Amino acid sequence: xxxxxxxxxxxxxxxxxxxxxxxHWAAGLVWSEQALFAIPDTxxxxxxxxxxxxxxxxxGVLDGLISDPRLCHxxxxxxxxxxxxxxxxxxxxxxxxxxxIHDGPKNPRTGERIFVGFPPGVLVGPGRPDFGDSxxxxxxxxxxxxxxxxxxFDQDIALSDRKSSPVVDAINPDLRAFRDHGGKxxxxxxxxxxxMPAGGSIVYYERVKALMDSKSFYRLxxxxxxxxxxxxxxxxxxxxxxxxxxxxxxxxxxxFLVGSGQSPQDxxxxxxxxxxxxxxxxxxxxxxxxxxxxxxxxxARPE
Length: 303
Fold this sequence. Notes:
Strand content: 5-15%
Shape: flat
Oligomer: single chain
């Protein structure tokens, strides 16, 4: 928001897991909340294990991480119960609900996408949807008692777009004034963020890139295993502030960041990985210790 509205205020900005499309993100939380009514918490581990079994090895390494969930084409239907509901399967209603969470909210009348969904392997946690409830219930609709199951993803979203989006959202892709001021922007997002879906950062980055030359001042880093802004399993400790400092003060743009943290499969071991600038992704070179960043490289995302 500062880069868009007050572009001369800072020479460098570090934006982690930003909720810059706040109003549509809030709609996504309510959408997921509605879907979660159908999925008991006791089935979360079942879903997670199935996703990892399908997608962990896509980057060439079985390490308990999904390096790029966009390559994970997990179909919840594989968990469909053969008969009645049971702890080790999903009912057709639960399968449909999980698909809704992955797909993200859409306008039921036009089919237009409102916001991105949560990627496979990330299921929004209990209590997370409260942000969506308070935004629509109190700010947009101004109802003291509001039932999130009643949100109209056509009319209520249109009201939000008119009434409060101009205040709370920071979605303007025109960063030319910030660029021309000499500003540098590093944005990062944890792929395992269960509050702000990571795809939202990619959507904004792509919009900026489509409008202007962004390479000279803007980098986006997507971090496997990281939760909301920090923490999580895997190489989630990054020296992003130092990288921004070198770029602003020394003119050295970050070719990649190095992430480190506990191995998801063996917490007694520390792993490190290069965190590549989007749209590049991390690729194992094929030999050497998979906990050592030097055995990985940044490469184009496989199609």
